[in-house]
């Protein structure tokens, strides 16, 4: 078993995937690769270089990493998706093909919904999502007991099947992840940390860390409107450095047609939202060693009190390079 807190070596290759069985077929030897992952839109893209890739052929490919450490070996899929026609890079007598790859979600992004299409109220979200993704050959895992829609979700002009799924996920508060093997996973947003990273027991982050604390745009006045009712919450406290008193000016934020919780007044809502918007988010960007099965949307615990970073952070994006230790550039924000 690989201890990813220690050094390891890595090798890479790709395969052609049979869309009917979702299994590997032909192997492709690659010389370079880069995988990008986000928590939105297509979720993942990739590119790789190889020799003798067939031109004008669209097929599903899968990129693997094989890690080795003191006689232990593991294999992880980094990306599975559509590979388009390659471009050529010529160096003397050697011609190398560069192949750009798109998420398996491209099947749904490239199909527009009919005008007037809508997801009906009180329909389980899982049923609608499976209908919208019916043409995607990848396995789809949706956790049980997905909520029903409280309101109908109507397609706008230019609405694709993928953008509609994202609207439905926003409505129910769930998330979607495309795993390395192409499996689409849909589940409630995870709040527990998947792994703890610290410089003593699990030191995988390089020393250079970029940290941003975004408080400049935090409001100190919040107006909420629901129907004919409106309420304003203010922060005029001398003990709050975000307040109108200490900043010397008002910074307003407004929400209209708000949805109130049971027993909540508009004034309660305005005060709650003001406090939520005044929570200062810390964002960080760093490079680390590769970890399998950690994706954007997951939560990691970072324990670096010496630089003011101790707590849970949600991963926003990753870029994995096919280097000796699969160097991973990661961006996170505090939860």
Describe what you observe in this structure:
- The strands form four sheets. Strands 1, 2, 3, 4, 5, 6, 7, 8, 14, 15, 19, 20, 21 and 22 form a 14-stranded mixed β-sheet that branches. The protein has a three-stranded mixed β-sheet with strand order 10-13-12.
- 12% of the residues lie in helices and 45% in strands.
- It is mostly beta strands.
- Among the domains are: 9-103, Phage tail proteins - horseshoe like beta roll fold, CATH 2.30.300; 107-188, Baseplate protein-like domains (Phage tail protein beta-alpha-beta fold), CATH 3.55.50.10; 221-277, no CATH class.
- It is globular, with a radius of gyration of 23 Å.
- It contains five helices and 22 strands.
- It has helices at 106-109, 125-132, 161-172, 244-247, 266-277, and strands at residues 9-18, 23-28, 30-38, 44-50, 59-69, 72-83, 87-91, 94-103, 118-119, 140-142, 153-154, 174-178, 184-188, 193-197, 205-214, 221-226, 229-234, 252-255, 281-288, 299-304, 309-321, 328-334.
- α2 runs antiparallel to α3 (161-172).
- The longest helix is centred in the middle third of the chain and has 12 residues, at 161-172.
């Amino acid at each position: 078993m690989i201890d990813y807190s220690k050094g390891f070596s890595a090798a890479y290759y790709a395969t052609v995937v049979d869309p009917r069985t979702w299994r590997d077929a032909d192997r492709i030897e690659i010389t370079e690769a880069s995988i990008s992952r986000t928590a939105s839109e297509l979720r993942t893209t990739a590119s790789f270089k190889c020799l003798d890739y067939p031109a004008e052929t669209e097929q599903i490919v899968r990129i693997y990493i094989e890690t080795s450490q003191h006689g232990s070996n593991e294999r992880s899929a980094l990306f599975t998706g559509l590979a388009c026609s390659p471009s050529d890079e010529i160096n003397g007598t050697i011609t190398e093909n560069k192949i750009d790859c798109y998420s398996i979600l491209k099947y749904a992004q490239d199909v527009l919904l009919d005008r007037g299409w809508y997801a009906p109220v009180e329909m389980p979200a899982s049923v609608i999502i499976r209908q919208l993704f019916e043409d995607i050959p990848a396995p789809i895992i949706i956790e049980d007991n997905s909520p029903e829609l409280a309101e109908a979700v109507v397609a706008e002009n230019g609405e694709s099947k993928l953008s509609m799924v994202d609207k439905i996920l926003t409505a129910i508060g769930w998330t979607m992840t495309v795993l390395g093997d192409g499996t689409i996973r849909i589940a409630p947003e995870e709040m527990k940390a998947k792994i703890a990273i610290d410089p003593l027991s699990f030191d995988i982050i390089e020393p250079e860390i970029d940290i941003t604390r975004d408080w400049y745009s935090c409001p100190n006045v919040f107006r909420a409107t629901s129907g004919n009712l409106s309420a304003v919450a203010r922060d005029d406290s001398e003990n709050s450095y975000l307040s109108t008193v200490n900043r010397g000016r008002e910074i307003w934020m407004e929400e209209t047609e708000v949805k109130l919780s049971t027993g909540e007044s508009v004034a309660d809502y305005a005060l709650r939202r003001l406090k939520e918007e005044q929570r200062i988010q810390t964002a960080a960007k760093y490079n680390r060693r590769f970890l399998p099965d950690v994706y954007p949307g997951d939560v990691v615990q970072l324990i670096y009190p010496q630089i003011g970073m101790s707590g849970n952070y949600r991963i926003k994006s990753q870029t994995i390079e096919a280097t000796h230790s699969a160097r991973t550039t990661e961006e996170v924000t505090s939860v």
